[in-house]
Amino acid sequence: MELPRARRQPEPSGCVRALRRRARRHRLRGSGVGRLSEEKRGLGVSAEGGDAALGRAARLRDTLVFGAVALAWLALDTLTKGYFNGSFAVGEVAGGPFLGLVRFRLVHNTGAAWGMFGDSTFLLGVVSIAVCLVLVAYLFFLSPRPGMLEVVGVALVVAGGLGNAFDRFTLGYVVDFIEPVFIDFPVFNVADIGVTCGFVLFVAGMILAYRRADREAAALAEGSVGPQAPGDGGEGPGER
């Protein structure tokens, strides 16, 4: 006697499948799985917000440090130039030598170091302003995470560049008064010290930043690979 064949159940329609999926999501949400995924998403959003807040705080700190250093150095340069230019005649020795290293002698410089680019004072002033603008743009708009050495270095360079440019535009020359006596070296001023030391700090900060980025990239690569857990890939025991 032939048994009757079981009737094949018809495939559920797309609408029915959608209703089943919705019901399953509601059950998961009620059991806590859905809430857990929502909490994870919330933690991701809060972490991103925390990073943004830290970035804004670091940018504010960099701006304040930059402004304080630049203004202080520019004020020191302006005061010293005003004192020597108003108290002594050109070529007059104002003091020294001190420790056999430097003496004070007033010089009006219409060019660059060692008399180069003589009588190009206006052009040199324009170049100084352009360099300052490029460095500020790099520090605050192009550099992702400038270090404190870079911030202080750029501040000193900008202060020195603006100080000498102001002299060139208003006086037609730069006031120099610090003369080394132990070597053949041009007479310079406080602004020149800021430019030189600031450039050294800026380059050192960039080198350290690149090294830090390389270390972080290497650590991230090692963390992404990580140790392989047993059973993750390959054949387990008895799996031949």
UniProtKB/TrEMBL annotation:
EC number: 3.4.23.36
Biased composition regions of type Gly residues, renumbered to the chain: 231-240
Keywords on record: Aspartyl protease, Cell membrane, Hydrolase, Membrane, Protease, Transmembrane, Transmembrane helix
Record-linked Pfam families: Peptidase_A8 (PF01252)
Catalytic activity: Release of signal peptides from bacterial membrane prolipoproteins. Hydrolyzes -Xaa-Yaa-Zaa-|-(S,diacylglyceryl)Cys-, in which Xaa is hydrophobic (preferably Leu), and Yaa (Ala or Ser) and Zaa (Gly or Ala) have small, neutral side chains
Membrane topology: Multi-pass membrane protein
Pathway: Protein modification; lipoprotein biosynthesis (signal peptide cleavage)
Example GO molecular function: aspartic-type endopeptidase activity
Top-tier EC class: hydrolase
Annotated GO CC locations: plasma membrane
Catalytic residues identified in the record: 176, 192
Region (Disordered): 221-240
Membrane-crossing residue ranges in chain numbering: 64-84, 122-141, 148-166, 186-210
PROSITE patterns: SPASE_II
GO term, biological process aspect, one: proteolysis
Subcellular compartments: Cell membrane
Family recorded in the similarity comment: Belongs to the peptidase A8 family.
Described purpose of this protein according to its UniProt entry: This protein specifically catalyzes the removal of signal peptides from prolipoproteins.
Protein name as it appears in the record: Lipoprotein signal peptidase
Organism in which the protein naturally occurs: Gordonibacter urolithinfaciens
